[in-house]
Design goal:
The chain has about 900 residues and is α+β, with helices and mostly antiparallel strands. Helix content is about 20%, strand content about 30%.
């Protein structure tokens, strides 16, 4: 008995130590840097022009250009080098795919499955018929058609691949600097060779030896590069090597549980999307995506980095050189030619998928905390929102709601009636989200663990046993989500029958899915763990959370027999995650700098396909001062994903706990979000169809304005709204750059400001600078309810901001807000056009719409109307309406300041024209 007690004490001490190490702020030495990462250190030591590969046997085969890459320089005593197989394929819309793999390796190298859309691979390929041969810069080269205005070029010796404008300037290139290297798999070590790698107390066996790949990528006509999330740093990526560069670490892409991360760091966080976008005034936008789930390190090279090496790339074009290094995998890369930023968004998401269309409730406000204690706490929080007239749509439960960290269960002492609890929320149009993490408690009485063990569904360790790591439940194993049959099995666990205590109004939160392993190397799974029986974790790592996210979303779809759209929030992210739900920026801190860095983090995720993202409002760690909390709500109300969240060691911070004045300010911020829900929902549909993100950098709308290229503090919401946060305490002024040549109208007052200049604005604690762009029309709903669900039948307001031509246009998208019927045409999509004194509603729905709404437009607000019209005629009803002055915001203290057409009562589903005279 004494021995058992001692063991229990040691176990509890170990768990507490693990937990404590998590709670303490990020410790840099717990994670590897480049010098401690052998593949990165080796690659960085390579010199330009060190690649000795040349293309041979160039031909067209199966509609693609193929070649063998053969080394032209064999060192003495060097093992024979197997040729590499290169394939270049062209796809619709100016997309080039480059694949390079070994010829006859001892085992097949891992290629990431289920990311590239099947329809892309099957329907969008252009079957190349011929190639032409040119001598370019003194070297034989093969040229193939890519799209109108673009060609793909393979230089033979030394090998180089690039896209160029037809007979013109380059756009993107690979291996222009001769840094390409491909470490081939081996079965046998050389005498005295040690393949094992050690970091702290962990040893990686590396049974196939070094297998890294590295190469340079050049972006021509570029002023800046962006993308490759996730990290807390500037939006435009700073150089990491070269003259004048102080920070010598590359940008790391390796999904990790980085507790309380620091801002302004190149260190990778919870997600990895190896997609980089370049933008410049001269050429426009291009993109490069490497489909690879292994650890990656990327250098952005400062101008002049190669000065000592004598490299001479085409000098007529400016360029940015980058250097990409990965531990394993193959080259499977995509070139996107643009030339505009929205073109690149469309091209990238045609490969990896557009963002899924969320349910309407998910676009509204979410209230979360680690943890709401019990059913009484839930009921009281819910009631307080009503008492203080603050709408919300979703209440979240963290890990403490479970039975001993056994996910898909309830602690029946704290939550004895979960179905009834959810039904009470649902009666007000509200929903609940519970957390479901990937670590499965190793407990033979736990049904999930029992079934997974019996079926052999866990990831294996290097010795072939079920991998056993430590996380919140203690001893845990991890489902092998790379296997489709495991994902299908996991999806069944979300049925109402299997997830006992759940209801159809319950949705899911996937946390810790990097995966996080408290006692693992760098707080994650060992690289030599085995998936699917044939893939090492080092090859799969960055996509693990993606597959978990996919399986969970599939489970919610199956739960509703394919009728209801899922909502699943994930912390880990990879290319394609946008198809399965939302993402948040992880464990931030209640500091002003974390509020500031949330903007470039959300913008970067949006640029790389993840439109539905946001940061924890208020900061997860720490106790924000009331002013910081208010400022965070005022900015967070414009995040695509709007959720407040807090650590369990923080003080309670529901919106009503900071005094009446601050409660009023937070309420007003949340009300602004609900008022703009029709606009946000329309933007989510645009993202769903085009890949263009909801939250956008200013240069996406104003691509030639250099003043926007490095703007980290402002963001566009769609093409119509510009918002800038306040990032310092006690701020009295803010400098806001308003791009373009047209006016911008203050969202609350209607005051007009000139575009193309920086304005020094007086600010107060009532809000952050937010403007509507002249020439746009924004749909709103101005009546406040308890939740978005209760607003469905409310009338609309249109805010028309006229430009210098007295014209404007905008769109409204409406569907049932929850089902997949919109995919069969069940929706309303209208374009509103104001020109020549007339407002016209045009139908954009394809075919005969199957969705109907009786909702009407009850107010039309006209900003910037230059003449004194006083009346309006509505056709075809031939009715008259008066134009009078009214409030811009119904619930504001301001008087009637905006010209308003009151109660035109035209239906949103109909064609109509309103003439003003």
């Amino acid at each position: 008995m004494k021995t058992q007690m001692n063991n229990l004490t040691l176990l509890l001490l170990f768990l507490f130590t693990c937990h404590l190490s998590q709670v303490l702020s990020w410790k840099k030495d717990e994670f590897r840097n480049c010098n401690q990462t052998p593949f990165c250190k080796r690659a960085r030591g390579r010199k330009p022009s060190s690649s000795s590969l040349a293309a041979h046997d160039v031909t067209i085969s199966d509609g693609s250009l193929t070649a063998k890459l053969v080394s032209t320089r064999i060192e003495q005593d060097q093992d024979p080098i197997r040729p590499l197989v290169l394939t270049l394929s062209a796809y619709h819309d100016g997309i080039l795919r480059l694949k390079i793999d070994e010829l006859g390796p001892p085992r097949k190298r891992f290629e990431v499955p289920d990311v590239v859309l099947h329809e892309f691979e099957g329907k969008k390929k252009l079957w190349l018929q011929r190639l032409s041969t040119e001598t370019i810069d003194g070297a034989p080269s093969s040229v193939v058609f890519l799209s109108d205005g673009y060609e793909a070029v393979l230089r033979h010796d030394p090998f180089e691949v690039y896209v160029r404008e037809t007979k013109g300037n380059r756009v993107i290139s690979v291996n222009s600097n001769g840094l390409f290297d491909f470490e081939q798999l081996r079965e046998n070590k050389k005498e005295g060779e040690d393949w094992e790698e050690r970091f702290r107390s962990h040893t990686d066996k590396r049974p196939y030896g070094p297998q890294s790949i590295s190469f340079d990528v050049s972006f021509f006509g570029a002023d800046h590069v962006y993308g490759i999330p996730e990290r807390a740093t500037s939006f435009a990526l700073k150089p990491t090597r070269g003259p004048g560069v102080e920070e010598s670490e590359p940008y790391r892409l390796f999904n990790l549980d980085v507790f309380e991360y620091v801002h302004d760091s190149p260190f990778g966080l919870y997600g990895s999307i190896p997609f980089m976008i370049s933008h410049g005034k001269a050429r426009g936008t291009s993109g490069f995506f490497w489909l690879n789930a292994a650890e990656m390190q990327i250098d952005v090279l400062a101008k002049g980095w190669d000065a000592e090496e004598g490299i001479a790339l085409p000098s007529s074009q400016g360029r940015i050189d980058t250097f990409w290094m990965s531990e394993a995998g193959v080259v499977d890369a995509f070139f996107f030619v643009g030339p505009g930023p929205k073109d690149v968004a469309r091209q990238y998401t045609s490969v990896t998928g557009t963002p899924s269309m969320p349910q309407l409730f998910a676009v509204a406000y979410h209230q979360c905390r680690w943890n709401y204690r019990d059913e009484e706490d839930v009921e009281q929080v819910d009631a307080k929102f009503d008492e203080y007239d603050i709408p919300y749509d979703v209440l979240w439960l963290d890990i403490e709601h479970t039975d001993g960290k056994r996910y898909l269960t309830w602690d029946r002492m704290l939550f004895p009636h979960p179905e009834e609890m959810q039904r009470k929320l649902a009666a007000k149009g509200r929903h609940m989200v519970t957390i479901v993490d990937p670590h499965i408690k190793r407990d033979d009485s736990y049904f999930v663990h029992k079934e997974a063990t019996e079926n052999g569904y866990y990831v294996k360790d290097a010795n072939g046993n079920d991998y056993d790591g430590w996380c919140w439940p203690g001893s845990s194993s991890y489902l092998d989500m790379l296997r489709p049959e495991v994902r299908s099995w996991w999806a069944t666990k979300f049925s109402i029958q299997n997830y006992v205590g759940s209801t159809p109004s319950l949705y899911i939160w996937n946390d810790m899915n990097e995966p996080s392993v408290f006692n693992g190397p760098e707080v994650t799974m060992p690289r030599d763990a085995v998936h699917r029986g044939d893939a090492e974790h080092r090859e799969v790592h960055n996509a693990y959370g993606y597959y978990f996210h996919m399986a969970t979303a599939d489970g919610l779809v199956n739960r509703g027999d394919g009728r209801d759209r899922p909502f699943v929030l994930s912390r880990a992210v990879f290319a394609g995650s946008q198809r399965y739900g939302a993402v948040w920026t992880g464990d931030n801190t209640a500091e002003w700098e974390h509020l500031r860095v949330s903007v470039p983090m959300v913008l970067t995720l949006g640029l790389t396909g993840i439109s539905f993202s946001g940061a924890d409002v208020g900061g997860f760690f720490g106790n924000p001062e009331p002013e910081l909390l208010v400022r965070w709500y005022q900015l967070g109300a414009y995040y695509p994903f709007f959720r407040a969240h807090a650590h369990h060691d923080t003080k309670r911070r529901e919106p009503w706990l900071f005094g009446d004045k601050n409660t009023e300010r937070i309420r007003e911020a949340i009300h602004m979000r609900y008022m703009l829900l029709p606009y946000f929902y329309t933007l989510f549909r645009e993202a769903n169809t085009s890949g263009v993100p909801v939250a956008r950098p200013l240069w996406m709308e104003f691509p030639s304005e250099e003043a926007t290229f490095t703007n980290d503090e402002a963001l566009m919401i769609g093409n119509s709204l510009l918002v800038q946060g306040i990032y310092t305490e006690h701020a009295k002024h803010a400098s806001v750059y308003l791009p373009g040549k047209e006016l911008w109208y203050d969202l609350k007052t209607g005051a007009a400001f000139k575009g193309g200049k920086t304005h020094k604005l007086d600010v107060n604690e009532e809000g952050v600078p937010a403007f509507q762009r002249a020439g746009t029309i924004i749909p709103r709903k101005d009546r406040f309810r308890r939740s978005s669900t209760q607003m469905v039948n409310d009338p609309y307001t249109l805010v028309i901001a006229l430009n210098s031509s007295q014209a404007a246009e905008g769109e409204l998208y409406v569907d049932d807000g929850k089902s997949f019927e919109f995919q069969q045409g069940s929706y309303i999509h209208r374009r509103f056009v104001f020109a020549d004194g007339k407002l016209t509603s045009l139908n954009l729905a394809l075919g005969q719409t199957q969705f109907f709404s009786e909702c009407v437009i009850e107010r039309i607000i006209l900003l910037g109307l230059s003449t004194g019209q006083k009346s309006a005629t509505i056709e075809p009803a031939n009715q008259n309406a008066e134009i009078e002055r009214g409030p811009l915001l119904l619930h504001s203290r301001q008087g009637p300041t905006a010209l308003t057409i009151r109660k035109p009562n035209v239906r949103i589903a109909d064609d109509w024209v309103i003439k003003i005279f």
